Amino acid sequence: MFDLTPEIKNQIVFALEDQNNSYVIHMPSGRVVDKSLPKDGEEDLYTSLPEWGPANGFRMMERFVSIIHNEPLQKKLRSVLFSGKGVFRNFKNILKEYPESESLWFSFKEKEMTLYITQWYNMLRENVGLEKLGEEPEENEDLVYDDFTVREYNSVKDKDILLSAANSVMAEREVLWPGEIGIALSHIWQQTFNVTETGKTFSFVAETVEGEFAGCIVATSCPSYAQHTVVLTLFFVVQNYRGLGIGKELLAKCLETLKQNNIRWVILNDIVIPDFLQPCLFRNGFVFNGGGYVADLFL
What we know:
alpha+beta, seven-stranded mixed sheet, 2 domains
């Protein structure tokens, strides 16, 4: 019975994705060959690979779309899934427009197919009286893009790009709330940004390995009579990088630093926070208090 090495697993994945040919695997060695190659009398040394067809690939794409949090990308991919034509090709083409999400797709796909192959392999082991492999790969519950860094804000390097990104977020609000109300909400957010520029702050930015700005978080100190309290005056992730775990990492880094600086209370105005970041707040101990969110870092 062959060992399921990474090399053999890759051979199996390649064979499963080749819809034009059929393959079998040599049980003693794990060598994957065309179904027509085994010689007469050697058939018992080979077994079929697990079934994998377009329906399996489609369901895998559906699962991926269901767990990503980038709403614009999610809508595009869902539209492709139900278009009925060129689904696989168009799915890949759209992901190419979002390189970070494309990386998540490759990671998701690898884990899904590893799980599928491992389950099949364990069935083979049981059939010959062997124990199953150890713990199987965990299913994908929350995708995180790890090709980015979180560092302290540099006013010289980051100010212009931060302002540009903040303006894009304000423009999103005006699209979401057309007319006067959208302009008013953007103005309120701009005032918050101005406070960030003048107060004492704990500030961090996220950037990709290529140095592209991906998001920012800023905590601004309160007056001296509330020296253990800060207000999150800025917290956003650039649209194309949402749903990649960047907001979670920014918040974790900021809260860790605040706690190290003996800050206990963190306040966040409800108007400032986008809806897509709310689950991240709750996971980090924030509670909604009617007008915003508050976290006690000493709990």
